[in-house]
Amino acid sequence: MRIGFPHMGNFYIAFEALLKNLGFEVVVPPRPTKRSIEMGVKESPEFGCFPMKATLGDLILVLEKGVDILCWFEGAWSCRFGYYGRLHHQILQDKGYRFESMIFDAGGAFKALKSVKRRINLSLLRLGKAIRVAWYKSRLVHLTETLALRSRPYEISQKETTMVTNKALNMIRETDEPRRLNRLEHEIISSFHSIPKDRERRPLKIWLVGEIYMVLEPEANFHLIEYLGEHGVLVTPFTTIHNWTFRSIGAGKREEERVRRLALPYLPYPLGGEEQLSLGYTILAKRLGYDGVIHLRPFTCMTETVAHSILHKISKEYGIPLLSLSLDEHTEDVGFFTRIEAFLDLLYHNHKKKTPLPHKGSDLRGSLLG
Amino acid sequence: MGGYLKVGIPRGLFWYYMPGGYDTFWEAVGFEVITSPPTNRWIFEEGIRSSQDELCLPVKVFHGHIAFLKDKVDIIFIPRVVDAMKGGKRRFGCPKFIGLPELIKSSISSLPPIISVDLTLAKDGIERCFLKLGSLLGIKAKVIKKAVREMLNLERKTRPFRYSPDKGYPVKIGIVGHPYLIYDPYLSGGFLDKLSSLKIDYITSSELPNKLIEERIEIATDLYWIYERELIGAAYLFVQQGEIDGLIHCVSFGCGPGSIVMEMLQRRVIKGKKLPFFTLVMDENIGEAGLLTRLEAFCDMVRVNKR
C-alpha cells in the first residue's frame, strides 16, 4: 500500500515515521516549489486560499510518483480547511487519477484507526510503536526548531545554524529506533551548543503570527524565519508543527487557552482558524516586551481577514508595531523582503539600544543587479 | 415620541434573511427604529473606503450602511450569527458573520454603542438569545418574549422574497446566491430585473422553504455553513425537479465559502447533467454593460440549448 500526503513545514518527518511503522509504504512529495505550486493553482478554484493551492500541487506530484492512498486531515470550526480534503480528492479524481482517499476527521481518533485497520493488518504492538516513534520524532523536531530560533540571531558565521538544523533534521528522519532517538536528543543539543555565538548582541524580538501554513511552511513565506534570524532578529513563531499536530492530545494547550482568553474582549467566538491566537499573541508579545509583530495571511483567508482588521486596533491600543502581509502565488520575494526590511529599519529606529547587524544584505541587491 | 432611543438597523447581510423582522422586534420593545436605505452610491463608496481591502463585497458595503447610520442613531444593532442545528449537527455561520460586530468596531471610528445579540441557535432557542439581550438592556422578559413572537410571526406571514410569480415566459432559470447579494439592487446591478426584461423567468434559492432544501443535501456536499447549505440544497432541488433550463451561481469576489460552493456545484451537483451553468462574480468594479452582455450571452445559450 503506497500512501501519500501533502507538506507543511517539517510535519512530514513525524508523519512519515508513523505511517511507515504502521506498515505502509510512504511516498513523501518533494518540497513545494514554484512548479508544484503552479500545478496546484491551475487545478484549484480561483478564490481558494494559498495553502489549498500549494497542497494540491504536492498531491499531484505524489500521484505522479504513484500512490494508492491519499491522506488528509480535516476539522475546523468554520474555516474552509475542513473541505479541502474532500475537494482536493474530487478535483484529482475528476482529473483522472485513481486512488483511495483516507480523511482523518477532527477528534475521531477511533474512526481514523478503523479506517487504517481496514487497509492494513494492524496489531496493538505495532500501533504502540508507531505512535511512540512518531511522538519522539515530533518532539525532536520541535526541539531542533526551537534551538535553531534561539541560536540563529547570535551566530557568528552566517548560515551555520541552518546547516546544523538541516543535519539534525536528517538524523531524526533516518533514525527509527526509539532508544537511539532518545540518545539523539543530547547530540542535537550539544551540536547547537557548539555553534560559535556572540552573546553580546541585543537582537530585536519579533513575534510571528498568522495563518498556520503561511507561518510554518518556509516555501510559502520565502524562508522568512531563517531570513529574520540571519538578519539578527530573534523571531518567535506563534506555534510549532509539534504543537499543531498534537494539539488534540494536549500539546501546548494551556498556553493556547490562555492566549485565547486574552483575545476574548476583541473576538468572543473562535472562527475556526488561528485568528484568536493571532490577536492573543499580539497582546502577549507586548506584555513580554517584544519589539514588533509580523502577521502573515493567505489572500482571501476568511478568518485572518477578520483578524487583520482587529489587529490594527490592538496594535494601536497596545502600541506595538505591526506588519500585516497578505501572500499568495503572485507574491514576489523582492517586494516581500523590501517591506520586511523597511519594517526592521523602523523597529531599529524605535529601539536605539538594539544593535542592528552589520548590513549583510547583498543577497537581495545581488539578485536585482544580476 | 421624542423621548425614545433610536436604534439603527443596517440593511445588509443578515437583514435580507428576515427583512423587517428585526425592525418589528425593536419597535415592540419600545425603540424608535431607523433602517438604512437600500444601498446607494454614497453608501457603496463609503463602505469601500472605510473597510479593509480583502473583505468580500457585501461586508464592505455593510460598512457603508453603518457609516450612514452612525450619526443618526443612539445605538446600532448587529446580530451575530454563530451557529444553528441543521441536518442533525451543529452548523456555523460564515466567519465574517461571527466576527461582524468586532470587525465593524475596529474599522469605523466614533461609533455609537453597538448592541449585538449572539444567535447561538444550536444551544439556545431564539427566544433565549434575545432574553440575554433584554437583561443587558434592562427590558422585562415578558416584553422581550412578546416582541420575539411578533418578529417570528411577521417572518412567517410575509416572507417578502418568497415566490416571484412566473410570468409565463418559455425559459426559466434557477439562481443560487445569497439573498443579501441578489436582492440588493445596487450590489447585484439589478440583474433580476434585467432577466425579466430579457423575457426570462427565474426562481431563486431564497424562494424555497428551508425544510425542502435540507432533505436534498447529500453527504458529499454536507457543508457546515448555515447559509451555504441553502445554496447547495437549492441547486440539488432545481436540478432534480428539472423545471429550470439553466443555473446561475451568484457570488461576490472574496467570498470564502463561495469558492467551495462553486466547485461543489460544478463537480457534484450539475456534473453530467447537460445544464448550462454560469458563475456571476460580483465585485466593486462591475459595470452594468458588462453584466448585461454576459447575461444576454448566457440567456441566448440557454435558449439554444432548450430548442
Question: Could you walk me through the main structural features you see in this protein, from its secondary elements to its overall organization?
Answer:
The complex is a heterodimer of chains A (370) and B (307). Chain A has 370 residues and is an alpha/beta fold. Chain A contains 16 helices and 8 strands. Chain A has helices at residues 11-22, 34-43, 50-65, 81-94, 109-119, 124-151, 160-174, 178-193, 212-216, 224-230, 241-245, 253-263, 275-287, 302-318, 333-350, 362-369, and strands spanning 2-4, 25-27, 69-73, 100-104, 204-210, 233-237, 292-298, 322-327. In chain A, the strands form 2 sheets. A 4-stranded parallel beta sheet of chain A has the order 2-1-3-4, with helices on both faces. In chain A, helix 1 runs antiparallel to helix 6 (124-151), helix 2 crosses helix 3 (50-65) and helix 6 (124-151) packs antiparallel against helix 7. Mean pLDDT of chain A is 87; it is low at 360-370. Chain B has 307 residues and is of the alpha/beta class. Chain B has helices at residues 21-28, 41-50, 57-69, 95-98, 100-107, 126-137, 141-158, 179-182, 191-197, 210-216, 226-241, 256-269, 288-306, and strands spanning 6-9, 32-35, 75-77, 80-86, 89-92, 114-115, 118-120, 172-177, 201-204, 246-252, 277-282. In chain B, the strands form 3 sheets. Chain B has a 4-stranded parallel beta sheet, covered by helices on one side. In chain B, a hairpin with a 2-residue loop joins strand 4 and strand 5. The model of chain B has no long low-confidence stretch (mean pLDDT 86). Chain A binds chain B through residues 45-49, 77-80, 82-83, 86-87, 90-91, 94, 266-269, 271-273, 275, 299-303, 305-306, 308-310, 312-313, 326, and chain B through 51-52, 54-55, 80, 82, 92-96, 98-99, 102-103, 105-107, 118, 220, 223-225, 253-260, 262-264, 267-268.
